[in-house]
Each structure stands twice: as C-alpha cells, then as structure tokens.
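Re: the multi-chain job from yesterday

Posting the exact lines I submitted so nobody has to dig through the queue logs.
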Amino acid sequence: MRLLKTICLLLMPVLLQAQHPLTFFTRTEAAAVKKDINRYPLLTRSYNEIKSEVDLWLGKDVDVPFPKDPAGGYTHDKHKSNYMLMFNSGVLYNITGDSKYALLVKQMFLKYAVLNPTLKNHPQATSSSPGRIFWQALNDANWLVYAGMAYDLIYNSLTAAERKTIEDGAFKPEVDFITKDLEPWFNLIHNHAVWACAGVGIVGIATNNKEYVDMALYGSKKDGKTGFIALMDGLFAPDGYYAEGPYYVRYAILPYYLFASSLNNARPQLKIFEHRNRILQKALMAGLQQTNLDGTFFALNDALKEKDYTTNELVTAISVATNVYGKDNGLLFVAKKQDRVLLNKGGVTIAAEIASGKNLPAYYPYHSVEYTDGAKGNEGGASFLRNGTGKDLTTLISKYTSHGLSHGHYDKLNYNLYDKGNEILTDYGAVRFIGVEQKYGGRYLPETKGYAQQTIAHNTLVVDEKSHYDGKESVAENFHAEKLFSSITNPSVQVVAAKEENAYQGVKMQRAVYLLQIPGGKKLMVDVFNANSKGDHQYDLPFHFDGTLINTSFKYDSFTDKLEPLGKKNGYQYLWKEAEGTVKDTVAQLTFLNDRTYYTISSLVQDKASLFLARKGANDPNFNLRHEPAFIIRKKGENQSFVSVLEIHGKFDPINEFSSNAYPSVQQMKLIQNDDQFSIVEITIAGKKLLIAQNNNDFNNKSIHTAGGVSWTGPFATWYDGKKIN
Amino acid sequence: MRLLKTICLLLMPVLLQAQHPLTFFTRTEAAAVKKDINRYPLLTRSYNEIKSEVDLWLGKDVDVPFPKDPAGGYTHDKHKSNYMLMFNSGVLYNITGDSKYALLVKQMFLKYAVLNPTLKNHPQATSSSPGRIFWQALNDANWLVYAGMAYDLIYNSLTAAERKTIEDGAFKPEVDFITKDLEPWFNLIHNHAVWACAGVGIVGIATNNKEYVDMALYGSKKDGKTGFIALMDGLFAPDGYYAEGPYYVRYAILPYYLFASSLNNARPQLKIFEHRNRILQKALMAGLQQTNLDGTFFALNDALKEKDYTTNELVTAISVATNVYGKDNGLLFVAKKQDRVLLNKGGVTIAAEIASGKNLPAYYPYHSVEYTDGAKGNEGGASFLRNGTGKDLTTLISKYTSHGLSHGHYDKLNYNLYDKGNEILTDYGAVRFIGVEQKYGGRYLPETKGYAQQTIAHNTLVVDEKSHYDGKESVAENFHAEKLFSSITNPSVQVVAAKEENAYQGVKMQRAVYLLQIPGGKKLMVDVFNANSKGDHQYDLPFHFDGTLINTSFKYDSFTDKLEPLGKKNGYQYLWKEAEGTVKDTVAQLTFLNDRTYYTISSLVQDKASLFLARKGANDPNFNLRHEPAFIIRKKGENQSFVSVLEIHGKFDPINEFSSNAYPSVQQMKLIQNDDQFSIVEITIAGKKLLIAQNNNDFNNKSIHTAGGVSWTGPFATWYDGKKIN
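And the result, structure tokens for all chains:
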C-alpha cells in the first residue's frame, strides 16, 4: 500500500499533466498557436517581441529583491517586470517545448518561495490595503494573476516537491494575506477586488486548490455576496457601463477576462462568458465606445489622459474576446492600433484577419450611445451623443451617473465636448504622474481630491462655492442624477436631459444638452441649465476650455500685475482669477482656438452676471497642475437659468495664413418662456432663427403641447428657419 | 503706310505669341507638363486640386471688392485668393488650351483695371509701407508676383486693346506706387523688397516692359546698389544663411525663386541660378537644415512655430530648384511631405521620382552644420550641432549672428535644444496669430517687441535686467557676436564657442556649448558661460524649458496665493514669479518631463545664487502669451560663470505605467580652473568623471596646453572615465 502510494506520487506529475495548463490556455490551444506562429506577421511579431525580452534573462540570475520602494522605484518595478517575465517565459515554454523557459520560471518561483513567507507589510504602504511585495495590495493581486498563470504554465515541468515548495512558499502567504488579513478588502465590490479575486482564483486553478477558486468566485465566506460573480453582477450596469467609469474599466477588464478565460477551461459548466447576457462582452464594447478618436479613454472621474486602448489590459481583453465571442471589426481596428496580440487562439484569429487585410474599418465604429448606471441600471447613467464621421467626429458627453466609488468626482450633470479628436470642453481627470517616483511615488496627488474631484473643476453648476453633496463621498454614494428624456436616433438633432435634486439642499437642477447640426452643416451644442430654489444662492457655471482665447464680446478687468486665487476652498483655491467683468442683458461670447478650429461659447445673460477668466495653478507648490484656462459665469438670486451655445466654426490655417469663419454666427439669444412647464429658447444664427422648445415636467413621447407660438409632440422640438428639424 | 501699321497692330497678338508665357513656364514646358499630367499620381493630384478649385469659379462673377479689411478680414482674404485664382487659371489655360480659363483671368483683370487707379492708401494701413489693395505694401507685392505671372500666362489670348487696359489700369498704378511712392521701401535690403522687386520684375517680363525689369534687377535708380541682384548679394551669407533667420527665408525664398525662374527664361544671359556660386541653391538647403524633425522652421528671431516646409513657398522653391539644379533626395523627401508640386518641369520630375518610390529617405538628411552671417560671412553666425538618427535626433542650436534686421531678437549667444522632434529649451518666437483678424488683424502683437524679442525671453545671459544693446535695434545692427572655435566632425563630441563684448557696456561674455554622447550612449549638453566685468552686476541666466516640472534638488518658496511679475521692464514684466529659492555651493538640479523623456538641468553654484521659477503670462490683458515655464539662475558680482549640464535621460511610459531612469546621473560638478586662459570643468556622472578643458584665449588647433593635471592640443579636449573622447 505504502509502495503503491509512492508509485502514485511519482506518477502524479504524468497523471496530472493533462490538467495543466488551464489558465492562460490549454495544451491543445498552445499547439494551435505554435502551428501558426510564423504564418501571420502580427502573431510572429508579438511572439518575437516576447521571446527577445525573455531570452535576455535565460541563464541569468534574476533579482527578487526585498521590497523597499514605492511605485516608480527599483524594487517595485523589478517585481512588476518579474511577474511578466515569469508569465511570458511560461507561455514560451508551452509554445516551444523548450525546458529552459520552464527552468527560468522555476528558479524565480523558488526565490519567491523563500522571500514571501518573510514579508510583513511593505515599508512604503500608506493605504488601508497595504501590500507585501508591493506598496499596495492591488499590486500584490496583479502579481498573483500573472504568477498564477506562470505557475500553471510550467506545472508539468515541476516535481511534486518543487510544487509543494512553491505553493506553500510563494503562493500561500500571499493568498492568506489577501483573503484573511485583508478579508474586508478582498470582499469589496470595487476594481481592487476584481484583481484580488482573479489572482486568488487563478492561483487556485493553477494549484488545483478548490478552496481558493471557491473563495474567488463567491467571496471568502463563499456566500456569493462578494467574489467574482458578485463583482460581475455589481460593478456593471446591465448594458455594460462600469461603475467607476471608462478609465477604470480599462484597468479592471484584464482580471475579468483572464480569470473568466481560466474558468472557461477549468469550470466550463459555469458558462462564465455567457453570464448576465454576456456582460463581459458588453463591458468591453462599452469601454471602447467611451474613448476618443485617438483611443484615449474619456477622462471621467479619476483618470489619466494618456491612457489609451493600446494598453496591455485591452490587448488581453480583445484577444480573449475574439476567442470566445468571435471576430468583430471594431476589435480588429483596435488590435491593429495595438500592434500586438496575446499568444492565444484569439490572438491567432486577429493576426490572421489583419494579415488578410479585409474588414478593417478606417476608424473605430463610434456611434451615439447611452448607458445606465448601477447594477440594476436604475442609478442614472451617461449619454454619448455623436455626430460626424472619420476625423470630423464630435462627441458630447452628458454625465448623470451615480458617484462612482472612491474615484468618483462631484460632477453631477457635467458635460464634456470632444471634436476632431481634441478635448474642447475638458474634464481635468486626476492629478497624478503614474510611475513617477519623484511625484509622491506615482500615487494620486493631493490636488486630485483638492481640485480635480471638486465640482468647480467640471463643466457643471456650483452653488455657493461648494461641491455637490458638500464633497462627501459617503453622502454622494447614496444618490444619483436621473435622466428625464433623450433622443439619439437623428444625428442632426440629439438631446439628453437630466435632473439632480440632492447635490445641494433646497436647489433643484435640471439640464438639457443638445448636439445639433443645422441645415447648411454647422454644428452646435445648446445647453439649457435651470436651477430652482426658494432661497438666494450664488450660481457658478464654469466652462473649462482647451484653447487660446481669441476674443470676447464683453469687457473685463484683467489682473495683469497681481494674481490671487478665485476662492478659498472646495477647489476654488487652485484657480487664479485672471480677469473679471460684469455684464447685463446681453449674450456674452468667448471665442477660442483649439488646433485649427474656432469655438465660441455664447451665453444668455438676463439681468446681471459676473464673468471670470481663471486658470489652474494656484496653491500648487509642487507644480502638479496643468495651467489650463476656464471661463466662469456667475449669477445670483433664487431661480437662475443658464442658456449657452457652443458653436464649432471656421478654420485656422497658419501654414497658408488663412482664417475662415473666425467669427461666431450666433447673434442673439432669447428665452421666450422658462417655467415649470416649458423652456423655449430662440437663437439667431446668421440671421436665421433656431427655436428649441422643451418640456420640463411631461416627458411623454405622445403628449401634445402648445406654447410660445408653436405646437409639438413629445418632450422637445426644434425648428430652424421656420422648419421643424427633429 | 498707315494701313501697314494697322495690319501690323492687328497681327501683333499673333507675332508676339512666341514670347509668352515666359514667367512661370514657357510654351514648351507647358506642353511637356501636359504630356505627363496623368502619368504620375502626385502630378495628377496637384493638377486636379488646382482644377477643382478654379472650376468652381468658371462662369461666375468673381468679386474684386474695394479694399477695407486688415489681414483675416473679407477684402484681404478675397484679394489674396483672387491672385492665386488668376494664376492657377492661367496655368490651366496653358496646360489645357481651354479658353474659358483665360477668360476667367481676363474678366478679373478688367475689374482690377477699374479698381486699382482709384485706390489710395488702405484704410487699415498702419506701417510706414502702406498697401493699396491690402493693408500693407508687402501684400500688394505678393499680388504683383502672382498677377504678373497670370497676365503672362494669358497674354496670348488678349487683344492689344485688352492688354493696354490691363497694363495701364491694373499694373501701372501698382508698379508706380511701389517704385515711386514707396521708393525707399522698394530699395530696401529686406525680405519685403525681395517681394517688391520680384513683383515689379515679373510684371515687367509679362508686359514686355524693360524699364520695370531693369528697376527690379538694379533698383529704382538702376545703379545696382539695390534691387534683386543686390538682394541676392546682401541678404545671404556666402553659405546661404539668410540674415533674418529661417522663418523669413521660408517667406523670401518664393519671390527669389519665381523671379529667378522667370529671368532664366527672359534673360538667360544673366545665368541667375549660377549667381554667387548658386546662392539660391545654398539658401534653400540652408533653410531646410534649419528645420525640426516635424518640418517646422526653428523659431529664431520673430517666428511662428506652426510654419513648416509644407508651405506654398517651399513647394514653389523645391519644384523650381529640382528643375534648375536637378534631383536631390532631401528635396524629394520634403516634396513627399508637401504632397503637392508645381505644374512645371521640376514638378514633373519630382512626381516621377516619387512614383518610382526609389531614393526616398525615411527622414530628411539633417546633419551638423555651421553658417556664417553677413553678406561677406564675417558677422558671426549660427551652429547647428546634431546627434542621433531618425526620430532620435538631438539638435543644439548656438546663435551668434548679427541682429537680423527688424525681426531680430536681442539673443546673443542664445541656444535652443530640440530632441526627438520636440522643443526642449525653447525660443518664444513671435507673439502673433497670423490671419486672425480678432488678434490685431493678424499683425505682430505688442508682446513681440515687449517680450519675445527681449533678452530675458531667451536662453542667454541678462545683465542688470536689461536687454542686449539696451533693446535698441539701431545699436544692435552695428554689432555681431563672434565664433571663437568649434568642432562638429565627431558626432559624440561637438562644440561651439563664441563671444559677445558689445551687448552690455563693460561686460565681456563668452559661452561654449558642447553636445556630447558619452560612452554608454547618454546624451548631454554642457554649457560654460563666463561673464567678466570690472563692475558689479546682476546676472540672470534663464532656461525656458518645455515640460512638466518633476523635481528640484533645491528648496524654494512658492507664491501659492499671490503672484507678482518678476520685474518691471525689458520683458521681465511678462513673467510671473512663481517660486524663489536661495542656494549656496551646490549643484542646483531641476528635472522636467517632455513627452516621454526626462531632462535635467544641473547648474553649478559656487558661492550664492537665487533661483526663480517663472511663467509667461503677466501683463497680458488680451491673453496673447502662451503660459510657458522658465527656470532662472541669478548671480551677483563682478565676474560670474554659469556652468550647466542638460542631461537627456530615461523614459516615461504612461500606457504601461513604467518610468525608467527618471533620476539624473549628474552627481557633482566642479570648476577646477576658470580664468583668462582656461576653463576646466569636472562633472561626475553615475560615479564616473567627465572632464572638459577649454581654452579661453588661444584657439589655435595646434597649440599644446597643460593645465589642471591634463595636457591637450587645440582649443578644447574632453575625457570620460580617464580616457580622451574627442
């Protein structure tokens, strides 16, 4: 019996070989990739890139240093490159069959098996979820995802003794730390937990540890209230919008896809990719719709503007998605920009399609689209109104979501405008220099909370110089804005209206934004913002524009020899007050130049308003802020309305020294009616009248209305030069 | 007899047909172009572009409005597009033979023949050289160049009576105005006069008017002291450097080449393209060497940074140059970027070469090059030190020219650094929004003289907060800096040293700048700037950097809640003082990030220095300035030296969240010796020593020197890690 047991143990590696790898790909899949590796240039290139990186380390003693530095520092970057090296070497082992690749991974794992049991919390840890190998647990979870796959990939090459050493030494301390010491964090509904669950789950599959996989799927208590399935159910709206916004779906999509792909092999009965009507497919497609022409993710919530869809996370998701959901022309377009594929079946499919040259669109297939927010889709949402094709695309984003967890901004009813690939009305994003050690270890800088998250940093209304919900996340998390009506089917007349009644006590805010292309081709955005209150307030509506100020219709005093901040708190202290003016009963206009196009903001002033020109950069001793301009309209009173037009016009050609249509066409604006029932706006554009009538309390598509001399059906109507255009 | 005369007059058009066209091309050349028009895609495209623009106007009544608006306004832009339309239509007439094109031109000319005799000075004219059709005479000269060619191109289609009407009505008032009313301006040695002479000369050829041609060639007095030949002799140095710098040679090159090309047909005996050892060829090649990787002209003197070599002026020069001087791979590279050729023989050659796909380099063939300044080449000059290939090109510009006429800046011994296509140490250029009517009619804005031309706007020494020559052009024009020694043959060790002793009374300035690539590949610039005086002075050395401040080695107080200007005059009033620090006996370091690369300025402080962080934008009520940062080192005393290193290092990868080598390698700096004879600098870089020894009074290549423990031959020597590297 004892002998049999020994024989069994000795045979184990052979017997178990059929079960590994299971995470990144299977043995069959690896063989299929190998067959095509020299067939399609993109696949060959991706393979050679990985191979040349890994080959540099063959036969060398790779450093596994004792953790010391924050992000951007040596030990941080070393451990980060180590897990990628282990993973890539594991992939190469399976494709080439060459044991030197397995050996490299094993030697590194044996070092981690020595190191990991000795680790306490990282010396640079500052957050409530400290890491051990890294300064934050999130990075340790990253390590588990890739190290887990690497281990699975070389599993067959190891002896039982080696496996035990690695599983007990390298993995167990990390998994225990994350699932026990950091249990509350592991059980969050948050992008960190997606990584944590994926890490623990992939290690579970790699080490044949059912307990790990179950905890990963259903939470440390295995009750399903937390864990991967709950994260698939809780962080996405039914249509795929991610609670934290586009920048973070970019980050979370990788563990979602990699763990799902592993589960697809290890627990096929889960049908994980079909879960919730293919929520992972919807998530990817929604993420890509939330990018600019240049592939950068829209800067909603905390976001770095450099991040685009060529990141490793999207390369991974697109290769896996192509494998499980099939070919998609939009994904192929992105994959071509990425110029890199995973060495899996999806990667082969993409490389083959790109080599054939067929089906490749010239631009990503952007279209107007609206997403709900919240797991049930009942917590507001965001609309992306689009007009134009190719390079001439205009995108108007209207955001009326819930807060968006810890990276959310106080930006209810905010909008942003992109045109021709440029950001025109901007969101600051986050204040952070990722990976730059000198800048606070690459972490979020204090100006993120202090400025970028505050309401004044957005293109939405600030009441009494305070942020929405008084800038309190715990309060903000309880509320969301609400869509009133929208229409996105006619590209020439698109609209979305939403309301927010909780951000400021006693103030009801309602905003409708229109993206119009009027007969003749001119594009404009019209913004009807009403704030109603029984008490007196100060209302500030900022326009954060990107461009050079060309002209204003109003006079201002500019603070040319002394600058002071615009205010003292809630983000105002970060704005220099550069100029100030007062206007009465007029249309205040400001023209700016962005790249080669002119843009003019025209805003109706009934009675009186103060106008400010401001610039970011005050109270910024470490020079963390970009010195970008803003135009702010201030009104005081009980109820106030802000009716504004942003007109896209003309062309600046510095090469040939021509400027055309540098002046705005908007000549007059009138608020013909504005009450609980209706807002009726008349805008005179180059002598012709644009009339917009909208309902403020009846949003039924079939209701018939008569007001201001016009009749219409449904929540809004638009006329140009006397003809109805919607 | 009378009958014979009448017959002769009637026959005249026929008899004269052989003599026209002569300006843009000849009848034979037109036939050759026609033959190939559908043969080479670039030629076909260029032809179709012109044709589709002109065809829009066929059969229409083109407006020739009474002049009213400045640049950017309707009448300005209309007259500008009119002369191009007449010219293009004239070209099409000769290529297609279709009389409708001639008719369009004739009808427009007949309107100008009515308009021009009625014109007085333009209502918007402000300069000493007012225009009539346009707000400045320069634009009227542009009109003459193109209208002259247009007339020549349709000459054969006109009756004698029509010719008389046009020559007397459209041309004579303009030529008289320019050569008589504006005689001093016409006779200038300045880019305006190049246009004026070309205009009058081309009209002369087109109208068979020898008097006009002679005035154009030899000045209104026909004594050769002014006029086109004198302008070829006077505005270029013998090696082709243009007195006003690269931005303006870009502008002047067109009338030079078009008039020369006309003369080549009309007065071949002049051999104009061979004049002064092919000075026009040298001028073009020198202009192109003074561009950045992206084709924009280096922003020396008054310059707009958007201007690149795809402008119409360069398209014209390159097509003509290819015709007269033959094919050149560099010119072909630029022509491909321009994606447009003239419809002349040179254009055919270029289109044929590009169609063949051979000989096209991947980058413009930039190389290290030095130019002298002044007609005799004895008024200083400028050096362009280059290292690296392709996208990794680094260019260090050292400017020690004469003043550069009215668009010159007070920038003696200034340098600028470009790297990887980006401007790293910047020149502001000019403050101007060309073609933007709202910005002062597109003219130079007051901030050009007030800030951009002042010394503080440059990377060179400012003594006592005054500009060079006290900011007086009349004084500056009498002096120039002088090169002491240089070496550009070894790409790893390049240097240029120059002195300036007249910019500040009683202060002698000498600066040597080195562009080094040390063993291992690191690139750095070393700057040794000595100022010697018998009296006490305040010395400010600014570094205008383009990038985000990442870190400083020194402490500073930052003016976070109140900003005031750095000074009161000479450009200082346009700089906000953002921070100030004081250091002693140290190496002051400042690291910034530009695009994806880190740059660190390290500057030796012996004894004491004040350090300032400043930003453009103060005293700028119309928001004309870009808000760019500067780092300023201030020292006080009699003699002062500034030894600085700019190190190019590391990589910032926000997509993959890696930063490498974000910290500088320069650790220590020592000035081992610094006197009348020698400057010996020791720089410790990552533990190894870089030693630079230079002579300050003996620049003989054969002199042997011993100082500071080392011996060398010639004006300088460099050692790294104990080994000589130059």
